Amino acid sequence: MVAITKGKRDKDKKLTLLGHLQEIRRRMVYSTIALIIAVAVSFYFADEVFDFLVTRRPSEVPLIAITPTEMIVIYFKVCLYGALILAGPFFTFQLVMFIRPALTRKERFYLYALMPALLLFFAAGAAFAWFIFLPNALDFLLHFMDDLVTYQIKIGALISFEVQIIFWMGVVFELPIVTFFLAKIGILNYRWLARQWKWAFVGSFVIGAAITPTPDPINCTIVSVPVFLLYLLGILTAWIARPGKKSPA
After folding, report:
1. Percent of the chain with pLDDT over 90
2. DSSP strand E in 56-189: where?
3. Per-chain mean pLDDT for the chain
4. φ, ψ (nearest 5 deg) of residue 6
5. pLDDT digits (tens, 9 = 90+) for 105-119
6. Distance (Å, rounded) from C-alpha 157 to C-alpha 59?
7. Which residues, including other chains, have CB under 8 Å from residue 160's CB and lie 6 or more apart?
8. How far is CA 181 from its chain centroid?
9. Distance (Å, rounded) from C-alpha 142 to C-alpha 202?
10. CA–CA gap between residue 32 and residue 83 (Å, rounded)
11. If 176 and its partner were Cys, which of 69, 94, 115, 234 is the partner (CB 3.0–4.6 Å)?
């Protein structure tokens, strides 16, 4: 009897694993189709996006291409970057639908309710990178010791640099929303987060140094200080989401 029960349990586990793999495949197929459609849409607007991205460099620094295929390659990169942004919400939705069965009804409600906030905070981080960080970083990089050298910049290097900064700043700005959700489902505790503030302070500068490939402390600080403030905001959101908090009457 024990052997039969054990065999049935192993069979159920295998079926569950197979079901998860099939579900992953289905979500990946949906995401691939969405990405193909987004690439087609972004290809239509690629010229406008291209012109928009190159405006952040100092106007006196010329853009160059050093290989015959560079412009074609970077043009398609712009299309792919645009497609990833357009399809990003759909990718997030597919991820949510995959993990949804493992969540309780209340946890699902919080996850659905916070999805718009994730997009909003990502957009805020991207705006911070575009309007505050990139002008300062590019101005420093492309004027450093310019009395000795004349700067030119590869178009591919410029766009890759900008997209990397914009993307990671958007991700970092989602930290308060993530901490709220994790605290709400009981994984994180605001007291523990508060006790780690010293490590968070050091970590914010490590993250700032990783995001910003500039050697000067000014640009690193421009990124690191908001990262640490976002951590403090994450402590506040975790406190708001603490288990057992009485709902307002």
Report:
1. 19
2. 63-64, 153-154
3. 83
4. -65, -40
5. 888 888 888 888 888
6. 16
7. 77
8. 17
9. 28
10. 11
11. 234
